[in-house]
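Q: What would this chain look like folded?
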Amino acid sequence: MKIRFATRNDIPACTEIGRRMAAVTRFAAYDFNAERLAQNLGAVIDSGHAKGTHCLFVAEDTAGQLIGLLIGCIERHFFSDLLVASIIHYDVLPEKRMGGAGLKLLAAFRQWAENRSAFELSVGINSGVEMEKMDRFLKRLGFRRTGGNYSLPLVAERSVR
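A: My prediction, written as structure tokens:
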């Protein structure tokens, strides 16, 4: 398994992973716009992973197929000059989750954040699935729970899981 920065050639595979993940989470109620996702992924890639404020790591299996990804960013906290690294999206395909890709993606992001002198690494879980499993995983890595995620559907005909 290999963890690396994504390239523009990875955008179709990342978009398909995004489509699969959206379909099995609370985001299934959202309209999935593959073109918008591809444009946003391209913007992250083009911003320059090494020096930019955003990154996109991908995990590929021994056959070279993408099996997971992590999109992250770093910014000053709203009321402080301290830098906080936050995960925007983090997922490994369900059938590949026990192979270590999730741990390696998180380790790559942590190193990226540490290289930028981040004060904290923040992970939010808003998929609404496998919450207990992710909680155990993150706590084993030294994270502590510091809040929660809540949502309120504002359009009646689109219920959120």
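Helices lie at 11-23, 34-46, 101-115, 131-140.
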